[in-house]
Amino acid sequence: MFDISKSGASVVLELKMPMNQWYTLKISVFKDGVVHNFAVNGFCVHASLARESGFKHGFEFDKPNEAALRSINALTGPTNTRFGLR
Q: In the chain, what is the greatest distance between 2 CA atoms, to the nearest angstrom?
């Protein structure tokens, strides 16, 4: 996970995934002593080479369920739209 917002995520993967397709993203992020595990459907809107790290993919979320939405809000904060993960 490179970056996450309320509407999508940026993920670096070893392989380049085909764009313009739906994927189930299984996400596990540790923040403030809590592990947030959730799954959400994401549409791959872009994929590009990220130097020697692999390929950076941009996914737009499709209507997260209530549990996923709680986790996304916990990661992004009530007023912040983004939470960068490095």
A: 36
E-assigned strand segments in the chain = 3-5, 8-13, 22-31, 34-49, 55-61, 82-84
Dist. CA 32–CA 80, nearest whole Å: 16
**pTM, whole model, 2 decimals?**
0.81
Alpha helices (runs of H) in 1-86, residue ranges in sequence order: 66-76
| pLDDT of 51 | 81
CA distance 42 to 23: 5
Cβ 22 vs Cβ 60: under 8 Å: no
Q: Would you kindly state where each structural domain of the chain is located, as residue ranges? A: 3-84
CA distance 9 to 3: 6
The whole-number average pLDDT for the span 58-84 is 80
